[in-house]
Design a protein that fits this description.
Length: 155
C-alpha cells in the first residue's frame, strides 16, 4: 500500500518529469515515428526511435497534453533508452500490468521512478493518459523490428 509520504514523493517525481522532460524532441533519422492520441483528455504524443543491433539506440518524444501523459512519456524514454528491444517490451508489459491490472510493483526488480505512476490507477480516466506513450513505444518497436527484418512477408 502506498502511504501519504509515498504519494507526496510520487507527485514530486511526476512534476519533475513534467517540468524537465527527458528525451524530449525527435530522433533523426528514426526507424519508427508513431503518433499517439488520447481523445478523452486531448493528449498528443509523438514517439520516435532508432534501433541498432537489437538495442534502442535513441528514443525521443514530443507532444502536448496533461502532466500525467507527458511525465509518463519522459519516464518511459528515460527507462528504455539504451535497453534491448526485449527488455523494453518487458518494461512495457510490467508497466501496463501495474497500471491496468493493478499488479503490485513491490518486488526486487521494481520499476524505479515508474512506480510514481501507480497512483494513477485509482483514476480510470488517467490510465489512458499514462499508457499513451507506452502504446506508441510498442507500435514503434513493432515497426522498427519489421523494418530490420528484410525478406519478411509484406503483409
Ligand atoms: Zn491526459
Amino acid at each position: 500500500m502506498a502511504t501519504a509520504v509515498d504519494d507526496e514523493l510520487y507527485r514530486e517525481i511526476i512534476l519533475d518529469h513534467y517540468r524537465r522532460p527527458r528525451h524530449r524532441g525527435r530522433v533523426e533519422p528514426a526507424d519508427a515515428d508513431v503518433h499517439g492520441h488520447n481523445p478523452l483528455c486531448g493528449d498528443e504524443v509523438d514517439v520516435t526511435l532508432r534501433v541498432r543491433a537489437g538495442r534502442i539506440e535513441a528514443i525521443a518524444f514530443d507532444g502536448q497534453g496533461c502532466s500525467i501523459s507527458l511525465a509518463s512519456a519522459s519516464m518511459m524514454a528515460e527507462q528504455v533508452a539504451g535497453s534491448s528491444v526485449g527488455e523494453a517490451r518487458e518494461t512495457v508489459r510490467r508497466f501496463k500490468r501495474m497500471l491496468v491490472d493493478g499488479a503490485d510493483p513491490q518486488s526486487p526488480d521494481a520499476l524505479g521512478d515508474l512506480e510514481a505512476l501507480q497512483g494513477v490507477r485509482r483514476y480510470a480516466s488517467r490510465v489512458k493518459c499514462a499508457v499513451l506513450a507506452w502504446n506508441a513505444l510498442e507500435t514503434g518497436l513493432d515497426r522498427a523490428g519489421a523494418q530490420g527484418e528484410r525478406g519478411g512477408a509484406d503483409a
